[in-house]
Structure formats: C-alpha cells, structure tokens
Amino acid sequence: MALQLMKLFISAATTTLVTPVNTRFFYVTEADAAAGTSLTIDAADFFQDNGEPVVELPDLELNNSYFNVYVNGVLQMEDLSTYTPGITAVGSLAFAVPADGEGILAGSPVVLEVVNFTPASTTDVET
C-alpha cells in the first residue's frame, strides 16, 4: 500500500445571533443655545419613552454600539456630540453648537438614541 497522509475529518458550523437594544432619551431645551456654545444635558434632564425620568445613561458596548443625536428631528453630525454614560451628575450628552451656524432655540426637542448590539454564537462540531 502506498503512503498517505492521515488526517481528521472535522466539520463545524457557527450560528451568530445579533440582538440590538435600542434606547431613546428625550429632552426639550429650556433656553436658547447660541452658535459657538455647548449644550450639555445631564442624565436626569432626559425622559424616557414612557415619560419617566432617566436615572442612568447606558454604557456603550465596545465595538458593538453607537449613538445618534437628533435636534428638531434632524440627525446631527457625529463629531458635534460627546456621550458620557452613567448616573445623574455623571452621565450626559454634550452637543457643540457650530460657531458658523444658527443656534438652537428654546423649546427644541433633542433625542438621544443609544443602540447596543449583543452577539451570541453557538458552534456545532462534527467529527
């Protein structure tokens, strides 16, 4: 019999389920925010979908999350916002109002949307 390479036959299949958790927070500006200033909103100043006050802004999962900021219903550029997760007096959203544009008027709605993805994988190996 001729020499031959002996090796294992292994088959594997991995299934990954990615579940998004979308959380929205709402705020209505109380005063004008002039161009060139920063609007900072504390966690406790936001309210939830059900109208209840927010106690804590959620952490962003590393490499599995993002946040969006809408002012007057319009999605804003990412580099204008700084998101800090945490409880009241720690968690906040800081929004830089561009100096070369218009300010934000009192009574304007601000919506913060935080999306975290939770991946879960299973692998079946057959030999």
List the helices and strands and how they pair.
Elements: E1 11-28, E2 38-42, E3 56-57, E4 65-71, E5 74-75, E6 81-84, E7 86-87, E8 92-96, E9 109-126
Antiparallel strand pairs: 1-9, 2-8, 3-7, 4-5, 4-9, 6-8
Domain DUF4183: 38-114
Protein name: DUF4183 domain-containing protein
Organism: Cytobacillus eiseniae
How much beta, percentage-wise? Answer: over 45%
Main sheet summary: 4 strands, antiparallel
Number of strands: 9
* Strand arrangement across the biggest beta sheet: 1-9-4-5
Task: Kindly report the average pLDDT value.
Answer: 94
Q: Give unreliable regions as ranges.
A: none
- How many domain modules? 1
What separation lies between the terminal Cα atoms?
26 Å
Series of secondary-structure elements, N-terminal to C-terminal = EEEEEEEEE
Structural class label: mainly beta
Principal-axes shape call = elongated
Computed Rg: 23 Å
Supply the number of helical segments. 0
Percentage of helical residues?
under 10%
Pfam family, one: DUF4183
Domain DUF4183: 38-114
InterPro entries: DUF4183
Protein name: DUF4183 domain-containing protein
Features:
single chain; 127 residues; mainly beta; three-stranded antiparallel beta sheet; elongated
Explain this structure to me?
By secondary structure, this protein is mainly β. It has one domain. The chain is built from no helices and 9 strands. The model has no long low-confidence stretch (mean pLDDT 94).
Outline of the structure:
This protein is mainly β and 127 residues long.
